[in-house]
Amino acid sequence: MKKFDMSLLYTFGIILGFTLLITLFNYFNILSYKVVVVFKIIIPVLSLFVGGFILGKKSSNKGWLEGLKYGILVIVIFSIINYIFLKTGFKIQDLIYYLILIMSGTFGSMVGISNKPNEEKEK
User: Fold this and answer.
1) CA nearest to 108, candidates 22, 2, 14
2) Predicted pLDDT of residue 123
3) What is the pTM of this model?
4) Residue 41, SS3 per DSSP
5) Which residues in 67-94 are b (16+ Cβ under 10 Å) and which e?
6) The pLDDT of residue 120
7) Which of 20, 55, 66, 90 maximizes the CB count within 10 A of its CB?
8) CA–CA distance, 114 with 71 (Å, rounded to integer)
9) In degrees, to the nearest 5, what angle opens at C-alpha 67 toward C-alphas 8 and 23?
10) What are phi and psi of 76, to 5 degrees?
11) In sequence order, which ranges of the chain are alpha helices (DSSP H)?
12) What is the pLDDT of residue 118?
């Protein structure tokens, strides 16, 4: 769990920051409702990619596995928050959305681990 701490911080920070910004733009009629709906999908996907990328930078090998674990952890957190605060049931659209989020975290971790500088190359 310790290796996920900064990734989770970045993920939830990006989600909260961009959601606040988009909400303010919608409040002052700078963005329409249709644009806000699109950003409701893009913001979590982007934030899980960034969190997975940071996790991949810290991982030593198997970035896809670390990203998969990270995506599942975030989905569990999202599901708990969704059930406790919104009290909505589970729909098939949620499953598809969660699978997209897991793939985003996995892909971000794979990109992060492949962009990590190798110590052998520097020697």
Assistant:
1) 14
2) 43
3) 0.86
4) helix
5) bbbbbebbbeebeeeeeeeeeeeeeeee
6) 39
7) 55
8) 18
9) 45
10) -65, -45
11) 5-27, 33-58, 63-81, 92-114, 119-122
12) 66
